[in-house]
Write a structure and sequence with these properties.
The chain has a three-stranded antiparallel sheet. The chain has two domains: 41 residues, no CATH class; 86 residues, Winged helix-like DNA-binding domain superfamily/Winged helix DNA-binding domain (Arc Repressor Mutant, subunit A, Orthogonal Bundle), CATH 1.10.10. By secondary structure, it is mainly α. The chain contains seven helices and three strands, in the order H-H-H-E-H-H-E-E-H-H.
């Protein structure tokens, strides 16, 4: 199933390129921007933050830090600003007293994370990362 899905994704990408006026053979032109994208979105801690926000729907700074204890406050702050700047997350300040700040995925961020679901599922199943959770019946434990 995953091989068929990978082929579908490849054809989808080629179709999008063709629809936007690019020939799929010009993919070398996309290498430099794709490397910049990967350095921003897939850099250390970015994926982890996106996964936390996807899982919890929204989270305070302190909640993200509790889930990712190895992540320093300074780096978390920088990563949140970076992900906000490129439009994958948004900072929501409530009008309560005292004000409360939460972080959420934007619509674009949600699309990105959902597109990653099959990658995580494939690796989780084929590389046995899910072995412990799938070998235990949900009513046990």
């Amino acid at each position: 199933m995953f091989a068929g899905f990978a082929d579908y994704c490849s054809q989808f990408s080629k179709s999008v390129l063709k629809h936007t006026g690019y020939d799929s053979l010009q993919t070398l032109r996309f290498m430099e921007p794709n490397l910049r994208i990967s350095k921003t979105v897939f850099s250390k801690w970015s994926i982890e933050i996106l996964v936390v926000l996807y899982t919890y729907k929204s989270a305070r700074f302190s909640e993200i830090q509790r889930v990712l204890p190895q992540l320093s406050s300074r780096i978390l702050s920088l990563k949140l600003k970076s992900l906000e700047r490129i439009g994958l997350i948004k900072r929501v300040v409530s009008r309560t007293r005292p004000p409360s700040t939460r972080y959420q995925l934007t619509d674009e961020g949600l699309i990105i994370v959902k597109m990653g679901d099959p990658v995580f599922l494939y690796l989780g199943l084929t590389k046995h990362f899910y072995h412990n959770i799938l070998s235990t019946h949900p009513t046990e434990a």
